[in-house]
Amino acid sequence: MDLLQRYIHHDLSPHNHIIPSSAPPIPSTNGPSSIHTSLDDHVVPYNKMVRHRECLKNHAAAMGGNATDGCGEFMPSGEEGNIEALNCSACNCHTNFHRK
């Protein structure tokens, strides 16, 4: 067996990808279907409450150290739904720095 045949794993003959007209139609997944109902019928409200714990922001990362501010629990700065509610009123850090 020569080297070229060892690395070829398939037939080199041209493949015929023409689908005959007698083949059954392939169902489309792009358009609406009479089988499926509206997605609005299946929407279930999902309100998962996430409680943020202590702040893990490393304030000494630029110097190569590790220093947290000691904030024990996230307290929102504003009312729920406002952009201010994403910052902690105790340490002024974003919720991303607080452990969930």
UniProtKB/TrEMBL annotation:
Task: State if Lipid biosynthesis is listed as a keyword.
Answer: no
Tell me the ranges covered by the ZF-HD dimerization-type domain, including all copies. 52-100
PROSITE patterns according to UniProt:
ZF_HD_DIMER
| Listed InterPro entries | ZF_HD_homeobox_Cys/His_dimer
One example of the protein's molecular function in GO is: DNA-binding transcription factor activity
* Record carries keyword Protein biosynthesis: no
Instruction: Give GO BP annotations, semicolon-separated.
Output: regulation of developmental process
Q: Where are the transmembrane segments?
A: none
What does UniProt give as GO cellular component?
nucleus
Q: Which UniProt keywords apply?
A: Metal-binding, Zinc, Zinc-finger
- Protein name, please? ZF-HD_dimer domain-containing protein
| Species per Swiss-Prot/TrEMBL record | Cephalotus follicularis
The opening ranks of the lineage are:
Eukaryota, Viridiplantae, Streptophyta, Embryophyta, Tracheophyta
